[in-house]
Amino acid sequence: MASETGLKTAFFSTRAYDRESFGAVLRQPQYSGFEMAWLEARLSAETAVLATGCPAVCAFVNDELSAPVVERLHAVGVRMLALRSAGFNHVDLAACRRLGLVVARVPAYSPYAVAEHTVCLLLTLNRHVHRAWQRVRDLNFSLDGLTGFDVHGKTVGVIGTGRIGTVFARIMTGFGAKVLAYDPQPSAETQGMPGVSLTSLEELIEQSDIISLHCPLTEQTRHLINADRLSRMRPGVILLNTSRGRLIDTKALIQALKAGHIGGAGLDVYEEEEGIFFADCSESGLQDDVLARLLTFPNVLITSHQAFLTHEALHNIATRTLQSLLEFSTGRISAEAQLV
């Protein structure tokens, strides 16, 4: 718990935009006693010791929160984990319960940020904007090989109808696309949305021209998109993933791309992104051979987990995270935010 001087928090994987967004919210009077230890290091078993003297830790999606890491944090006095993310598949919640650590997340920050970035990936891939931009910079103004298709009239499959999937589905109906949606527990909003039809996963896989993933990573959804499902997709399909990297079997995707079956892949996440995304590897080089192979395809567009990165989302993440820390300091954490 916090002392009279406030709560000290070890803030791992810090970037300039984190310090800016959190700094703005920290100026509010209720946080006057709070102290942030800004750490650029990614949280791991080796760096957990940096949280010594901090009752709370603020972690991001690529920080490691396995049982050994959680145990080391507990050993140096950490009693609360504040996740500045909605996803929590990187956290060993059972270990946190065993040790009595409180865990809170940001249930929602901006579904529009992620949904709109997904649209950005789709349009860039379909109309070859990334290739055209590079050509023009080289003074090559030819249009050969840049033909796309109208999204209007196409069938878009949306896997997952949470907040983000619902917003993406609505945007696609605005384009005049037919939307097929799948979710074991579809949202009420999606069920009643004009232009959206709920269907089975297999029908969605087989009937869609564009497929977008908006579901959490669980044991059931790991490699949801595998070699079999890739083979049953329509030739030329565009596959989008702004959720979690392990939803897709990357090696199977590479084989489908090599065969020319997949028209394009827009990925904001990657199976083994930990230690790569959010880092500058321009000097050290890329040691991941699978990711390196993906980057060789002209019809693959990869961004480094930036779909969340809008001013609005960052403000909402900072606000909810600091609110959870404040609630922890007073012993009352919102049920919506608390995981453990």
Description:
With 340 residues, the chain is of the alpha/beta class. It has 2 domains: 8-109 and 310-330, NAD(P)-binding Rossmann-like Domain (Rossmann fold, 3-Layer(aba) Sandwich), CATH 3.40.50.720; 111-302, NAD(P)-binding Rossmann-like Domain (Rossmann fold, 3-Layer(aba) Sandwich), CATH 3.40.50.720. It has 12 helices and 12 strands. A 7-stranded parallel sheet has the order 8-7-6-9-10-11-12, sandwiched between helices. Strands 2-1-3-4-5 form a 5-stranded parallel sheet, with helices on both faces. The longest helix is centred in the C-terminal third of the chain and has 20 residues, at 311-330. It is globular. Residues 1-5 have low confidence and may be disordered.
Strand order of the largest sheet: 8-7-6-9-10-11-12
Number of domains: 2
CATH architecture of the largest domain: 3-Layer(aba) Sandwich
Query: What class, by secondary structure content?
Result: alpha/beta
Indicate the mean pLDDT.
95
Reconstruct the topology from this structure.
Elements: E1 8-11, H1 16-26, E2 35-38, E3 56-59, H2 67-75, E4 80-83, H3 93-99, E5 102-104, H4 111-126, H5 129-137, E6 155-159, H6 163-174, E7 178-182, H7 188-191, E8 196-198, H8 201-207, E9 210-213, H9 227-231, E10 237-241, H10 250-258, E11 262-267, H11 289-294, E12 300-302, H12 311-330
Parallel strand pairs: 1-2, 1-3, 3-4, 4-5, 6-7, 6-9, 7-8, 9-10, 10-11, 11-12
Helix pairs in contact: 1-12, 2-3, 4-6
What would the keywords be for this entry?
12 strands, disordered N terminus, Rossmann fold, five-stranded parallel beta sheet, 34% helix, alpha/beta
